[in-house]
Amino acid sequence: MTEYFKPVTPIWCPGCGDFGILASLKKALSDLKIPPHETVVLGGIGCFGHIHNDLAVYGYHALHGRVLPTAMAVKLANPRLTVIAAGGDGDGYAIGGNHFLHALRRNPSIVYIVSNNGTYGLTKGQPSPTAQVGYEGTQETPFEPVLTALSMRSTTFIARGFSGNQVQLQMIFREALQHANSLRGMAFVDVLSPCVTYNDTYAEWRKATVDVNADAGYDVTNRTKAFQTVLGLLEAGKLPTGILYRGSGKSYEEMVLQGKEPMAYQNIQPAANVEMYRKLISRYK
After folding, report:
1. pTM of structure
2. In angstroms, rounded to a whole number, what is the distance separating the alpha carbons of residues 65 and 279?
3. Which whole-number Å values give the CA distances from 186 to 87, 123, 240, in the listed order?
4. Are 157 and 185 a contacting pair, CB within 8 Å?
5. Average pLDDT for consecutive 10-residue bins of the chain (285 residues)?
6. Going from the N-terminus, what domains does the chain have, and what CATH number goes with each?
7. pLDDT at residue 1, rounded to an integer
């Protein structure tokens, strides 16, 4: 059932911010010495949804907007795996918006990386939910994923990076991987990743980004103040980056598995389950 492929050369345009995300993720996985055979990367749709083909790990290409429920299923089946879900802002915040909200609510111990460039780069540059006012004529207020995540009381790790700042991004990914692999819940990382073909915002975003962790007084454990700080920066035309919030709470697998042996470790051989099968069949007689 398993086919093995060597990682391929990324298909992104030269200068795409996704190269920075990929390089930072590789470095973080290497720094933490996470074994490739214990890592699963699930890709969504969009330019960034190709990332699972670019890493020497187990990969899965999910349906459009459905990468998060698929990633949750993998984590429930085997909580010992490092599970990373990845996709673009259109995939995650438009067609996948419903799953995004409920993944935040359920708090599974996975890393969710969204490459956020404010445009549907794969389908020729239409405005995405995070497009800024004025881009391609849009007048709609942009969706703010980090504010949404902060408003969900069950979230335990929220961060934002910029692909033009790989030192910070590597740190964020290391912290996110450690958080999820400690079974403390979902590590959500929104990454500002310019699309050089349709929405080249490198210069603009480099000036606008503000590292909240550079402020010694910033408390990553205070959700209320984190929300106020992030909202204030956004309203001032700035883009907050860094680890925005880190807290504690029940993870999804802690609630669902309740001490049961995960499916990946159960004996599913017929001989070991005959009695259970008989009980199931008896219900339909």
Report:
1. 0.91
2. 38
3. 15, 29, 20
4. yes
5. 73 92 96 96 88 90 88 95 95 91 97 92 83 86 95 97 96 98 97 94 95 96 97 96 96 88 82 86 87
6. 18-282 (3.40.50.970)
7. 54
pLDDT at residue 282 in the model: 92
Instruction: Tell me the H-state helices in the chain.
Output: 18-31, 67-77, 89-90, 97-106, 145-151, 166-181, 202-208, 223-235, 252-257, 274-282
User: Pairing state of beta strands 126-127 and 119-120?
Assistant: antiparallel
- Joined tokens for residue 242: 């860094």
Residue 48: phi and psi, rounded to 5, are -75, -20
Residue whose structure tokens are 């069950």: 154
State the maximum Cα–Cα separation within the chain, in Å, rounded to a whole number: 70
Q: Which two tokens stand for residue 213?
A: 């962790």
Question: In the numeric block, which tokens belong to residue 64?
Answer: 């459009």
* Vertex 2 angle, CA 48 and 277, to 5°: 115
